[in-house]
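Holo model, D-[(amino)carbonyl]phenylalanine. Inputs:
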Amino acid sequence: MSKMIIGGAQIGGIQKDETREEVVARMIALMDEAHGKGVKYLAYPEMTLTTFFPRFYVEDRAEFDHWFETEMPNAATRPLFDRAREYGMGFTFGYCELTPEGQHFNTSVIVSPEGEIILKYRKTHLPGHSEYEPERTHQHLEKRYFLPGDTGFNVVRNQGVIMGMSICNDRRWPESWRVMGLQGVELVTIGYNTPSQNNLSAEEGIERRVYHHELSVCAGAYQNSTYAVAVAKCGMEDGNHMFAGSIIVDPDGFVVARAEGEGDELITHEADFAKCAFGKSTVFNFAAHRRTEHYGLICERTGVQIDV
Ligand code: ING
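Output:
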């Protein structure tokens, strides 16, 4: 299939007292709207089911296990899976995963139109810190509550399209995009929860952060000739603001749809995945142009080493 209407379901703030059932009802309302507009694949944000709890510090991490899902689908999310299957709609969403082995991940899944989870991704790049840092205006404790993902960046062919996932901070790292680009990805979805303020730099305003968000997504899409849907959980969560800026980007790196507000909002676009082919066969024909013999440091070296 070459053409398909894709959607981004931006979710406004989820307060810490909001139940999974209340959130799923909001997600289904957006899915109903998407169905009405002919959407066949719908992307929800990172940690769609809960508030962004890594802003809170707790000494005993087990106290936060209630933010995690131990199975998927489960009683709270089954209605979402059922509605999507009724519509013949594929979708992707993020949630916090607690494995039977007791591991905690920031996870997202791709669900086929038949309601099956066909790909799972666990967030690779965890920003922030693991201990309480009083000098910060707010905490960002993803390294405290999650393990770095162990899946890597894989792709799956779903509804005739090669699809992959990143989560939030991953979009800032070109490696995330290129690993999927090397697998022929045609649609990358990225859910995100991004605080509007830098907790170490008061002068870094929301405009600069939104610019860096768009820059990362547009560059990633263009440099790998893929569509991208970047969709926010945003607005106010218990007094903490996260920016919106949900966008759909085409394989030439142009924004083709953009959310206007910072609440629950659907954005859509009729993607023509045949458009991915031109970039992949010309300027980003990796086989013809890449020179991997010069890229060794990218994998051999983690941090900067200055020898001059
Ligand atoms: N949030 C932010 C993100 O990468 C961040 C953290 C913001 C890092 C701005 C660097 C600069 O969008 C999450 N959840 O990763």
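The longest strand covers residues 227-237. The chain has eight helices and 13 strands.
Archived with the compound record.
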